[in-house]
Amino acid sequence: MDQPAKLQLLTRQSGEAGFEIHHIDSDQAYLGYRPRRVERETWEITAQPQSPDGRRNFILKNLRQDRYLLIDEREAFLWERFDGGHCVEEIAGACQERFGDFTAAQIRPVLAKLSEAGLLVERENLALQQSLARNQENLWVIGINSAAKYWRRLAFTLPNADRLCGAIYRCGGFVLFHPVTLVMTLAIAVLAGVAALHLSPRAKQFTQMLSATPWRSTAIILTSLLAVSMMHVTVHALACKAYGRRVRELGFFLLQGVLPTFYADVTDIFMSTRKARVVVDLAGPLVELFWGSVAFLAAYQTGPGLAQAFLFGIGVVLWEGALINLYPFNFLEMDGYNIVADLLAMPTLRQQALALAPELHRRLLHPRSLTKSEWIQIGYLLLCAVSVLIYLIAHLDFLLGLLPSWK
Predict the structure, then answer these.
(1) pTM for this predicted structure
(2) Residues 168 and 311 both lie in one domain
(3) 193 Cβ contact partners less than 8 Å away, ≥ 6 residues apart
(4) pLDDT one-digit tens code per residue, 19-70
(5) Residue-wise pLDDT tens digits, 352-384
(6) Any residues with CB less than 8 A from the CB of 139 and at least 6 apart, and which?
(7) Is 147 within the bounds of a domain?
(8) Burial grade of 344 (CB within 10 A; 0-12, 13-18, 19 or more)
(9) Minimal CB count within 10 Å: which of 64, 75, 176, 278?
(10) Based on the domain organization, do 206 and 277 belong to the same domain?
C-alpha cells in the first residue's frame, strides 16, 4: 500500500549550526489545519426560503470582491466554525454530531469553494501560486490574453451603473413600481388584446407586406427589439434599486459572438427577500408587454398600409418575447424560470433536473425512493419537453402557412 504523503520541516535549536528534519503525515497536518474566514466586515450571509424538502440554502457574499456563493445548511454550519480557533478534526466532529455521517475529507471541497470565492484568509497565497503556475505556460497566457482582447471588443460595461440607476430611480423611476402603474399596464394590455383580435384577420396581408421589403422590415423590427431589450434590463436594475440593493453591472455583449444582448447584473437582490426577487424578475417582461400593447393600439389607430403592418408585427414580436420570457418551462433560465425557482426555494432547479435526467429511467423503477424535490424536477423536465415540442409544432405550421410551396 502507498505510504501517505509527508511534509518535511527543517528545524534548528538556538545556537546550533545543523538542521534536523521532521516528517509529518499530510493527513495529520490537514486534520490540524485551522481554517479562518475573512474579517466579519467583509462578508454577508442571507438565509433563503425553505425548499419543499425542508432544506434551506444561504447566499454568502464577499463584500470586498463583490462575489456571491450559494451554500447549503451543512456548508453554512462549517462556515460558522471557520474562525481560526477550530481545527479540521474538531469541525468534522461537530458536523458529524449535527448531521450524522460526515468525515473530515468532506471539508476539502468546501474549503476549495470558499478559497476560490476569496472568503478564506489563505486566498492571497493561493492566488500567487496559481499566478506562478499560469505564467509557466507562456503559450496559454498568450492565447488567453488574445481571447480576452477580442472579447473586450465585443462587449462593454457601463461605468458607475449603481450610481446611475440610483439617480434614475430617484428622478422618477420609482413611479414604475407603484401599484397604479401595474394596474394601468394590465388595463392597456387588455385593450391591446381587443385591438389585436380585431386586426388578426389581416395578419396574412401584413406578413406579405413585410415580406415585400425584407431588409427594411428586419432592420425596423430588430431596432425596436434592441431598444425594448435595453429598457427591459434597465427596469430590472431599477427594481433592484427599489429594494435598496446594488446594481453590480449594466452592459452589452454579443451572445455566442452573434446575438446583440443587453444585461443587468442584479445578483445583490439575493441578499433581500423572496418577494423582492420575484418583483425584479417580473419587472423586465412587463416592459415588452407594455410596448407591445402600445404597438397594437397604434396599429389599430393607423390606417391600412405598411406602417400598420410594421406596428402589428412589432406588437406580435414583443408580446411573444414577453410570453417566452415569462414562461418557465423552456429549459432556459429566463425571468419566468427565476420566478418559479424563487417561489419553490430551489435556485438550482434546472441544473438539478438536468443532472437527474440521465438516471431518470432507473430512478422511476423505484418511485418511493424519490424525494419531493426530485418529483418537482421530474415535473419540470416533463413540462419543458412538452412545451418545446408544442412550440416547434406551432411555428412549423406558421412557416408552412407563409410558404405554400412547402405543402
Answers:
(1) 0.74
(2) yes
(3) 296
(4) 565 444 445 555 667 888 988 888 999 999 988 888 889 999 988 888 888 9
(5) 999 999 998 888 888 888 999 999 999 999 999
(6) none
(7) no
(8) middle
(9) 64
(10) yes
